[in-house]
Amino acid sequence: MNDHIATPSPASPPALRPVRTPARLSVAALGLAGAAWALRAVWEIRLAVAGEPASGPPDQGGGEHRPLTSLENAYHLISSAGGITAALCAILFVFWLDNVRDNARELSGRRPRYSGFWLYAGWVIPLANLWIPRRIVAGAHQDSAPGERLPRSLNVWWALWLLGMFGGVGLMYADDTDQVIARAYTDVWLLLAADAAVVGAAVAGILVVRAVTAVQLRYMDGGSGYGGSPAGPDSAGGKAA
Q: I need a surface site. Which of 10, 34, 114, 205 has the fewest CB within 10 A?
């Protein structure tokens, strides 16, 4: 007689985007970028030890450039490879961040503080790039694991990122490669300090990616779900890699 009464179905778990593979790719790219900047530092030391040629810096002024030495030519190649690696790292990191940001919105039911526009523009718009990317990463962690403290590596990564970005050979420096070579002959320690910040930011960035990914994988792999509720192993995100 009660056959017509429908039994309410259990709430479906949120459909989450894959994070494990994007995280692995991002970690690998961060490692390559850090290695590329470490190699730049080694070459800058070699340039400083070799000393500036008697003919002066590569850029002679007035649009004239002298022929490069073998060390200088190798530095040009290393610098170009580092730029390509940094671009690849940026693409893969933002791809990972887009996934964890969407997952955090599904888990929390709250809209992110910043729209999707800021996920990309926040890195390049002056002043905004001083804090918005960090807040996006922090928001993804907080919405995925409410009540948990932010990983310490987050602030370390962001401080080193800013130092490296605006440093002597960071991602936003204005000098061309020949000018950097000239600085290696006269102010190598300033270049090495900026290199160290970039390498440190890459290492801390790896820890950040692993920490934010881990809180979402706890849910996706059937551990403690969002807010402490159990997550079933057959959830839509549980099999995403």
A: 10
